[in-house]
Design brief:
alpha/beta; Aspartate Aminotransferase, domain 2; Aspartate Aminotransferase, domain 1; 2 domains; seven-stranded mixed beta sheet; 12 strands
C-alpha cells in the first residue's frame, strides 16, 4: 500500500477489502490494473540476476508473481491481519500446496474425518504416495485428536464448518494441542467465509480458501488462497509454489479483487437469508433434520457462539426416503439450480452422496454424516420469500 492507503491496519475490515494492497501505475487508475503479462524485462543483466536471487524487489515471471495477483494477495493478508498470502489456481491447489509443503517423507498428518471429498483424497491417498501417513479423527472430539498424535505428527488439518455436514470444530482447542505437540494447524475456512471466522486469531497457523466460492461469489473464476506468516510461507510453501506452478491467472486475480469490494454486502445478505430459510425448513413436516450454524439446535452451538461472528450461507437438511426422495426434491426445483458449486449469488442445491462425496463407500459416508437423504443448499442473493416458495413446492413434490 502507498500514500493515503498507509496505516490500513487501523481501518475497518470492509474498508480494507476496498483499498488494501492497491498499486497504481503511472496512469493513476482508480480501478486496480490488470497486468496480462507472462514475463518482465530488466534494465540490466545485473538487475535480472538480483531479481532471481531475491535481492532486488520486483517481478520476474507470472508463475512466480504478478502485479495484479500480488495486489490480491496483499489485500487478503491485510484483511486477515496476516503477514503473507499466496494465490493459487484453485482451492484444491492451495490445500495440496500447503500439505505437501509442510510435510516430508516419514511425517504424519491428523485430519478431521468430515472433509470435502477432494481434501480427503489428498490426505488419504495422495500424501501416502510420498511417504506421509495420515489418521482421520472425529474433529469434534479433542480427545480423538490427542489419541491420534504420534512422535512424527507434523500437521493437523480441518475444515470448520465442514462440507457438507456443517460440523463445527473447536479451533482454539485443536490449536492449543497442535502447539503442545509441535504441529502446524491448517484450517479450511471456506464455509465460514473470511467475514464470520478468524482462525488465525484462534491459534491456526495456515488458512486455505477456495476463492472460487464466496470471494468470487458470482460463478466466474477459479482460485485459491493461502494465508499465513511470512516465515511459514517462505520456509515451507513458496518454493513448492514457484517450482510446481499452480499459479493464479492475473485475470482471475483481477476478478477476485473486484469481488472483495462487495464481499461483506453479499455474504451478510446471504447469511441473513440463510437464517430465515433454515428456520422455515425446521418448521416444515418434510425435512427430518436441518443443520445450520446459526440455529440454537446446532450440535456445536456453544462453540459457534465463541468462535464465529455470524453463520454460514450453507444449510444442510435431510429428507426421508433417501436418494430417490432427494432426487425428486432437486428435480422439482424451479428457481434454485442443481450445482456442486457454493457461495454463489445464485442459490444452488446438490446431493453430496452422489457428487462431492460419491467416491466413498456407504459406510464411510455414514461415518462422515453424509446420508443418502442429505442435500446441501447454498443460499444466494435472491429474495428469501422467493426461495421459500420454491422450496415449498419442491418439498410438496
Amino acid at each position: 500500500m502507498s500514500g493515503s492507503e498507509a496505516g490500513a491496519a487501523a481501518l475497518h475490515p470492509e474498508t480494507r477489502l476496498v483499498h488494501a494492497g492497491t498499486m497504481r501505475s503511472q496512469f493513476g487508475e482508480t480501478s486496480e490494473a490488470l497486468f496480462l503479462t507472462q514475463g518482465h524485462v530488466y534494465d540490466s543483466a545485473e538487475q535480472c540476476e538480483a531479481r532471481f536471487l531475491n535481492k532486488d524487489p520486483g517481478f520476474q515471471y507470472a508463475r512466480f508473481s504478478n502485479p495484479t495477483v500480488s495486489m490480491l494477495e496483499q489485500r487478503m493478508a491485510a484483511f486477515e491481519g496476516a503477514e503473507a498470502c499466496r494465490a493459487t489456481a484453485t482451492g484444491m491447489a492451495a490445500v495440496t500446496a500447503v500439505l505437501m509443503g509442510l510435510t516430508r517423507v516419514g511425517d504424519h498428518v491428523v485430519a478431521a474425518q468430515a472433509l470435502f471429498g477432494s481434501c480427503r483424497y489428498v490426505v488419504e491417498d495422495h500424501l501416502p504416495r510420498y511417504g506421509v501417513e495420515s489418521t482421520l479423527v472425529d474433529g469434534t472430539d479433542i480427545a480423538s485428536w490427542r489419541k491420534a498424535v504420534r512422535p512424527n505428527t507434523k500437521v493437523f488439518f480441518l475444515e470448520s464448518p465442514s462440507n457438507p455436514t456443517l460440523e463445527v470444530i473447536d479451533i482454539a482447542a485443536v490449536a492449543a494441542l497442535a502447539r503442545e505437540v509441535g504441529a502446524f494447524l491448517v484450517v479450511d475456512n471456506v464455509f465460514a467465509t473470511p467475514l464470520f471466522q478468524r482462525p488465525l486469531t484462534l491459534g491456526a497457523d495456515v488458512l486455505v480458501y477456495s476463492a472460487t466460492k464466496h470471494i468470487d461469489g458470482q460463478g466466474r473464476c477459479l482460485g485459491g488462497l493461502i494465508v499465513s506468516s511470512e516465515d511459514i510461507i517462505q520456509t515451507h510453501i513458496q518454493t513448492y509454489l514457484r517450482q510446481t506452478g499452480p499459479a493464479m491467472s492475473p485475470f482471475n486475480a483481477w476478478v477476485m479483487l473486484k469481488a472483495l469490494e462487495t464481499l461483506p454486502l453479499r455474504v451478510q445478505r446471504q447469511a441473513q437469508s440463510a437464517a430465515i430459510i433454515a428456520d422455515w425448513l425446521a418448521e416444515q413436516p418434510g425435512p427430518s433434520k436441518v443443520i445450520f450454524p446459526g440455529r440454537k439446535d446446532h450440535p456445536q452451538a456453544e462453540i459457534i457462539a465463541r468462535q464465529m461472528s455470524g453463520p454460514s450461507t450453507l444449510i444442510a437438511f435431510e429428507v426421508p426416503g433417501g436418494k430417490d426422495a432427494a432426487f425428486r426434491l432437486l428435480n422439482a426445483m424451479k428457481l434454485i439450480r442443481i450445482s456442486n458449486n457454493l457461495g454463489d449469488a445464485k442459490s444452488l442445491i446438490v446431493h453430496p452422496a452422489t457428487t462431492t462425496h460419491q467416491r466413498f463407500t456407504p459406510e464411510v459416508r455414514t461415518a462422515m454424516g453424509v446420508t443418502d437423504g442429505m442435500v446441501r443448499l447454498s443460499i444466494g442473493l435472491e429474495h428469501p420469500d422467493d426461495l421459500i416458495a420454491d422450496l415449498a413446492q419442491a418439498l410438496a413434490a
